[in-house]
Design goal:
CATH superfamily of the largest domain in chain A: NAD(P)-binding Rossmann-like Domain
Strand content of chain A: 15-25%
Distance between the termini of chain A: 46 Å
Number of helices of chain A: 8
Order of helices and strands of chain A: HEHHEHEHEEEHEHEEH
Largest interface: A-B, 56 and 56 residues
Oligomer: homodimer
Shape of chain A: globular
CATH architecture of the largest domain in chain A: 3-Layer(aba) Sandwich
């Protein structure tokens, strides 16, 4: 079905889109061909009408009385998420968290290609992590001049977060995936920041277990 | 003001609570005494009426024409989040991601105390990471019998996620903080699962930069 974006999509919907993709991808890999909106909803803990409402932001999907074709909807949501844009990413900070991402995170499953890893530590520069030769952070500006890069991943210490942000903006990235747990300022650059706040997640868990007690 | 919880709090509100806390904490540390709901909202990118509506789930806060006393509201939101319950946490899996949490995550700032770290790798067992003596995963069941533990943190390989979950449930934890990027099944145990899905976050960023393009 044709995707027609209608107005501004709420943050709540944006946050559910990756979950739709993840759920549909699991069904797809299990060889399931189609699913009713109520079954899809119950597997995600939301209502069928929520699903219909969410998807209606992007066009018409599914067919009354038939449900959703899983392969089709998975592909369409991948398109909506921009997974076919061949975005590239570089990682700044090859410490423990950076290494965890280099070694275990499957960038390709999100449509991204990780193209380089950087660090400031002479003991790390030149070493290989998961096939990535760690580059000196001193070479970042030059790298960005010669390699069009979609996203910079910030796994640097907090104290370096803003400085690295400034270099990434000057180097023309479109987005920053920020793990530093500090707010970074991108001014009027138009660069999009997505932060992974571990503490927000643990506090939500704290709330949820307190609420049950 | 008295906190009166009115019915079920939506997931969207639960997700905003840690951000309220984080924002108020920053103002508090900067020595700011009070703030209007519109200024608080603009610093969080939400409207003043959204804030009033969110907080109304828990009682009455602030005063017409005065705004919010930052120290008070920060403390009340900390209470709502259960930050004063002295929750304990243990970490399962002392690989790169586990080490990143052990070394850099400030558990105390969320009200949690990290009490032990475990791993299955003989090369890690007995070593010290940030003052934590890594214990053998073989001793987990015994540890849980003798140490009441609120939360288990899963930074194990995907293949161990469900097995470790089962041990944590049997050991009486209240919550699981899941970094394995797989869905874990807690059956009817009543255990709360909070997952940090890196891929969901990167896909949201992918959506947001695609939308701007």
């Amino acid at each position: 079905m044709q995707q027609v974006k209608k107005g501004k999509v709420s943050n709540a919907v944006i946050r559910r889109l990756p979950r739709y993709y993840r759920t549909l991808d699991a069904f797809y890999r299990d060889g399931i061909v189609r699913i009713s909106s109520s079954a899809l909803g119950s597997s995600m803990g939301i209502t069928a009408s929520q699903i219909r409402q969410d998807l209606s932001c992007f066009g018409e999907f599914g067919q009354q009385g038939y449900g959703y074709n899983i392969a089709d909807l998975r592909r369409e949501i991948a398109d909506i998420l921009g997974m076919n844009h061949h975005y590239s990413a570089i990682l700044l900070g090859s410490g423990n968290l950076g290494r965890a991402l280099l070694r275990n995170f499957r960038f390709a499953k999100t449509g991204f290609t990780l193209t380089a890893a950087f660090d400031a530590d002479p003991a790390l520069i030149g070493t290989s992590i998961s096939g990535f030769n760690v580059r000196s952070i001193e070479t970042l500006d030059e790298y960005l001049k010669t390699h069009s890069t979609s996203v910079g991943i910030l796994t640097v210490p907090k104290s370096e977060a803003q400085n690295m942000t400034n270099h990434l903006i000057a180097g023309g990235v479109k987005g920053i995936w920020n793990f530093t747990n500090v707010e970074i300022d991108v001014g009027d650059s138009g660069v999009t920041v997505e932060s992974v706040h571990f503490s927000d997640s643990l506090l939500a868990l704290s709330y949820l277990i307190s609420e049950k007690a």
